[in-house]
Amino acid sequence: MEVEVDVIEFRVPIENNKTLFVWNIQPIFSEAFIYESIWNIFCKFGPLYLVKVCPNAAVVEPGFYALVKYFSAAQASKAQRATHGRGFFQNSPLKVKLSTKQYPNFLHNSKPLSHSKCQDLANHYLGFNGWSTHIVTLKDISNCDNAGRLSTTPGDPQEITLKYGCIMEVTFPQHGLSCRGVGVAEETVEGTGTDIVLLKRGKLQRWARDKAVVDAFEKVLLLVLGNGKVVVECRMERDNVLQDEDLEGLIKVNDIPWSQFDPDGQEEDEDIPWDLSVNM
């Protein structure tokens, strides 16, 4: 017997078959009301990555359209079939179609989810008690660069560079699996006052932990079966497998400044162009 399997990744969904375009929304409602209504309608079919509501272009009749992103292609397809042609919160029917435009090649590699989105997705499919995290190691690596020299900031002597590295382990007890991730957070601090430095150290430690958790979740696949059962798989690379005794004094990281990431948990894909092409 053939079993349907939906694969869920902890990455920003950019595939066409996960994005819905909703239009023919009447202009008598506020954007806030439309956003809440659209979210409440479509979240019933599965967890949503994002909902965005926009006014129609000036050359089109007044009104709004919305874009809805799912993590699951199967759930997006089910939602499209169930909602197209129904009015819900308005008299005229909503029009709902799957996106059809092809993304450029440079957009095919999507970004990892934010820490909060990883938590939300894991909680939805696994439950609050279905996974846990713990710190394997958290190191202050401010004093050394790759060559083991003192890290200094050129120019202003009142500026110091702080850097923390962290290895986190995400465990799935009901599945007997775990995987590890690495995170590095770095920032230059203006001024050497004790209060300023202590505050920044605390933030960098949190950011490094969050980034390590995100890195661990990138290795996780959730296989959602047709009967609703969820199976967890971890993609392990040979170079990433380290014994605990090998971790003392070691954090193997790609040295990436935290400024390239979003420590405040903003939406990840504001710079990804929205796709308005559909089969009419």
From TrEMBL:
Main location: cytoplasm
GO MF, one annotated term: DNA binding
Cellular compartment(s): Cytoplasm; Nucleus, Nucleolus
PROSITE patterns registered for this protein in UniProt: RRM
Pfam families named among the record's database cross-references: DSRM_RDM1 (PF25517)
Self-association and partners: Homodimer.
Protein's UniProt name: RAD52 motif-containing protein 1
